[in-house]
Amino acid sequence: MRNKNILLTLGLLVVIALVVAGCQSAPTTVEVTRQVEVTRVVEVTPAVPPPPVVEIPFLDVFLASGHANASDEPFKHWDAATPPVVPGACARCHTSAGYIDYLTNGKAADVPAPAGTLACQTCHNDKTMSLTSVTFPSGKVVNTTEDGEARCMTCHQGRESKVSIDKQINDTFKITDVDAQVPPIKDANGKDVKFGFRNVHYFAAGATLYGSQAQMGYEYDGKAYDPKFRHVTEFDTCVACHDQHSLKVRVEKCAECHANVKTVDDLKDNRLNGSLEDYNGNGDTKEGIYYELQGLQDVLYSSIQAYAAEVAGAPIVYDGSAYPYFFTADKDGKIAKDDKGNNVSYGKWTARLLKAAYNYQVSVKDPGAFTHNAKYIIELLYDSTADLSTKLSKPVDMAKLRRDDAGHFAGNTQPFRNWDTAGMVPAGCAKCHSAGGLPQFIANNGTTYLTGTGSLGITGVVAQPPANGFMCSTCHDTANFPKLLAVTSVPFPSGAKLTFSTEKDDKGNLKPVDANLCIECHQGRESTASVNAALKGLEADVVDPKIGFKNIHYFAAGATLFGDAAKGAYQFDGQAYAGQNTEHPLNQCTQCHDVHALTVKIDGCAGCHTEVKGVEDLQKIRMDKTDYNGNGDTTEGIFEELSAMRDKLYAVIQAYAEKQGTPIVYSAASYPYYFVDMDKDGKPDKDDKGANIRYNAWTPRLLESAYNYQYSLKDPGAFAHNPKYIIQIVYDAIANLDKAGVAGMTRP
């Protein structure tokens, strides 16, 4: 309505203006004021709710950790630097930006200081979450998809290695005398560069964990070292044992198996059944592995001080809290001071001293080394001590110390390291030379069989990764720990299925016996059947190039114990052989051997054999008064009876081979054990490349006897396991080559 009135008013004003204009004789200008009502539109922005508060998981826990402690030296060290930057080499692990830059570009750039601490995005980004490979300072690469390991080990790996130590010694300073003082050299700018200590850096837990696979420690040439320490499957990575945000040890998880563990300090009292040696030589094999390690550190430090004073020419002292850690000692054994009151860094380094001091530092700069990989660190400490000791006026009594573990847990030895280059232990070997092969073989009802070529076939197990010895799960049922895997029947290379089991359950099935687990592996890899298959159709005394030596393998104690039932040795047609040794009251593996240390239970022997005080005394025992070897001595131990017969067998093997035209020599430590010895100097002949020439003139008869000689040696306890059987197979092997050779001897 209001709008209509406005329009009417405007219309009247227009009409009046026209009338007036028409009545006037002259033009007149009329001002018309138009009133226009304008409606104002105001846009009102609706109320916007505040953004939701995003809660970052574990933030408080992370902020309380060492990785987020801005006041700590690892993050503030460069704040006062000139210029104030964190160098790229340091920024890689001491700044969040540097870590991400390193993973993105392969090298971290300098980062302005103060750079702050690590942050959530340091580890939570596309690069880190997909990280599966770590390159260590040695250049060695570890590929791993195990939870979190690569992220952690990118920094927790140290900054030095055997490679960098050797480079300084051999390339930079070109040292030829490892005990001589080293003069300075000039750098590119003409400044003096002194030969000195190299610091591994701090908390290199990842490198400790992976041992020889990372090669952080100074590994002495010719020595073998443990690779990654395998604890148990569930606790085998960094984050399985450490909370990745707080960095604290998951002590409550340790306590699930280690009932004595209530705090982190309690871990120092732990030692596994695979580490039962007296490493530090103090006579205590019950103390925690931490203290074994500590004892070896003390021995090495004493050796370092003795060597520095005697050989290098200046006393030395260590201070783990003051860089560069090793200093010249004054007459009171404290750090010497210069005229300005500053610590005097040690300046009398020799190459030998550097190697040992570096390993000492490696052992102390990872405070968790005793859990990360105690065996690797023990090996480094032992070898460093042994090396220094060769130059001391009062050498360390190395006989009291121990470097290696019992065979099943000696991960640094050939039975476990043979496949490192290949990367996998083949199925035929994995059953006994890996941590996971045996349980897989048992779970799959695996068996052994003779192939058409006479070699051993194995089913039920596939190739396995190399291990650093057995794990608990190798023999124990982890779901019912500590119960052992149940075995009631064991297949042998001959095709026989044997068992120690004698009792049956209420269903009439044999009950498993622990000793059956032992003979799954301690059975050898050959037998009478495989030797016969290899020699089938060949004439006894005719050399045939198709014949190769058949090796029983090592420690075939199970086959020896079962004798004729296993037919592990070569049994000659027409002869009778002793079966399972049940004459002795203790006739099972676990009755005579400690299942972890593998040592003989001497106390069990001494109950009847009062003269037995140590393992060597077992060799003095004899079963009767028969003079088996024909030397007229019926008081010597059965071990000596057998040894004399074995010596005779070797003599007739050599005589037969020479008569055939190709002299032979045996080397117990060199595969394939038998070699050509044309010059008869008692050593293997060499080819044009310097390699031993393996024996190549086998006849079937020679192979049969040579096989038994090897068998008698490769079970060093054969004289106790089944003396009658082992004497029979040696006696028959002698007669096979020389019937007159057994004159005066007696066959059981």
Task: Chart the SSEs and their pairings.
Layout: H1 2-23, H2 59-63, H3 73-76, E1 85-86, H4 88-94, H5 96-105, E2 111-112, H6 120-123, H7 126-129, E3 133-135, E4 141-143, H8 149-153, H9 162-172, E5 185-186, E6 192-193, H10 205-210, H11 238-241, H12 251-254, H13 289-312, E7 316-318, E8 326-328, H14 351-365, H15 369-372, H16 374-389, H17 414-417, H18 427-433, H19 437-443, E9 447-450, E10 456-459, H20 472-475, E11 490-491, E12 497-498, H21 514-518, H22 528-535, H23 557-562, H24 589-592, H25 602-606, H26 638-660, E13 664-666, E14 674-676, H27 700-714, H28 718-721, H29 723-737
Antiparallel strand pairs: 1-2, 3-4, 5-6, 7-8, 9-10, 11-12, 13-14
Helix pairs in contact: 4-5, 13-14, 13-16, 14-16, 18-19, 26-27, 26-29, 27-29
Give short descriptive properties of this protein.
748 residues, two-stranded antiparallel sheet, 14 strands, disordered N terminus
Summarize this, please?
By secondary structure, this protein is mainly α. The chain is built from 29 helices and 14 strands.
Give a written overview of the molecule.
The protein has 748 residues and is mostly helical. Among the domains are: 59-232, no CATH class; 264-409, no CATH class; 527-661 and 697-748, no CATH class. It is 34% helix and 5% strand. It has 29 helices and 14 strands. Helix 13 runs parallel beside helix 16 (374-389) and helix 27 (700-714) packs antiparallel against helix 29 (723-737). It is globular and about 110 Å long.
